[in-house]
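User: We ran a pulldown and think these components assemble together. Before we commit to crystallization trials, I'd like a predicted model of the whole complex to look at. Sequences follow.
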Amino acid sequence: MVRNRILYKTKERHKRTIRDVIKGLSRRVKVYLQPLKSECPNCFYDKFTNRSTGKCKWTAVEALQKQTEWETSTCYASTIRYRYFLKGRCPVCKGQGYIETQRTTWINCLVTWNPREPFGNEMTYTPAGSEGSNIVRLKTDPKNYDTFKNADRVIVDGVECRVSRPPVTRGLGTQAVLVITVFKTKKPKNDSNEIIKDYN
Ligand SMILES: [Zn+2]
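Assistant: Here's a predicted model for the assembly, 200 residues in total across the polymer chains.
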């Protein structure tokens, strides 16, 4: 009984500790999820060929009206969703029959640029995007597994990175941490305003 209670208390303390570490030292990482595919709003979809039928759903007047409605109702004003065409390639989906919508989310992660060991327990706090850094180790709550498993690319400290391998869970129970390895794909942006904007 007593022993169980002590174990429970120890576990609770560990749980707090790991959460505090992630909460206290983590930075917000922007994660690009796999884009959502949806049928093109502008043309009829051909289920047999899995492509656009090349036939517009709307008349010229309807298309203009729907595009105007869309532009006034959303912040994606520059996106064209409705545009009349007589026949041939749909200008909205380029004949694919579907459009892709980019989805992003923010995840708090411990960020380590150029970790010394592939799977070490180091928590080095290196400067953001420091010279010569190409590999970034991210550590986060295991609940984010699905998010990173389906992630296409991430923005760490304003730097675009590709997720290199499936995320791995290290440790057991409440001490478990999700470890993700990503690679830098571009040089850090010089536009510091944009980086600040990203973190708001
Ligand atoms: Zn289309």
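The CA atoms of residues 42 and 83 lie 7 Å apart. That may be worth checking against your pulldown data before setting up trials.

User: Thanks, that helps.
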